[in-house]
């Protein structure tokens, strides 16, 4: 039994090592670049509008909804940024030097298009029940 488990662990370790290497980097960055181009640089074009949304320019007390734009952003950030992200930056700087931060910024800019797409699809395919409650949406898929 132990031999079988050791073989399975070894096999899954090899598969994970192959998939989470260069192929994952190419897939993630490639998808981000594709979405950035396809959405015509949405992360740059809509930056001013995004700041206006967060500041409450478009909030109206008569609008339907349970969560403000700022509350939605705060929830999204709390689900996305955790201890691992903070420790990851420190580890990257320690191992790769300050130049690692530059490449993190570049990949973050490309990753914004992926995040925008996933949130947009989550909102589009959520379910609104007869009583007005909502199932699905970005809060179900952000983590």
Primary descriptors:
mainly alpha, two-stranded antiparallel ribbon
Task: Describe what you observe in this structure.
The chain has 143 residues and is mostly helical. The protein has one domain (2-141). Helix content is 72%, strand content 3%. Strands 1-2 form a two-stranded antiparallel ribbon. α2 crosses α7 (99-124). The longest helix has 26 residues, at 99-124.
Tell me the number of strands. Answer: 2
Point out poorly predicted stretches: none
Q: End-to-end distance, in Å?
A: 36 Å
Radius of gyration: 20 Å
- The helix content, as a percent range, equals over 70%
Structural class comes to: mainly alpha
Q: How many strands, which pairing sense, and closed or not: the largest β-sheet?
A: 2 strands, antiparallel
> What is the domain tally?
1
How much is the average pLDDT? 86
Side by side, the strands of the main sheet go 1-2
Number of helices: 8
């Amino acid at each position: 039994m132990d031999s079988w488990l050791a073989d399975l662990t070894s096999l899954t370790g090899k598969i994970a090592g192959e998939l989470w290497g260069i192929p994952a980097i190419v897939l993630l960055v490639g998808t981000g670049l594709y979405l950035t181009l396809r959405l015509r640089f949405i992360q740059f074009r809509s930056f001013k509008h995004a700041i206006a949304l967060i500041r409450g320019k478009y909030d109206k007390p008569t609008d339907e909804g349970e969560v403000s734009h700022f509350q939605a952003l705060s929830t999204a950030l709390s689900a996305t940024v955790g201890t691992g992200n903070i420790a990851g930056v420190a580890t990257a700087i320690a191992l790769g030097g300050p130049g690692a931060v530059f490449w993190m910024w570049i990949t973050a800019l490309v990753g914004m298009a992926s995040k925008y797409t996933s949130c947009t699809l989550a909102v589009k395919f959520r379910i609104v029940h007869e009583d007005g409650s909502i199932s699905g949406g970005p809060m179900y898929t952000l983590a």
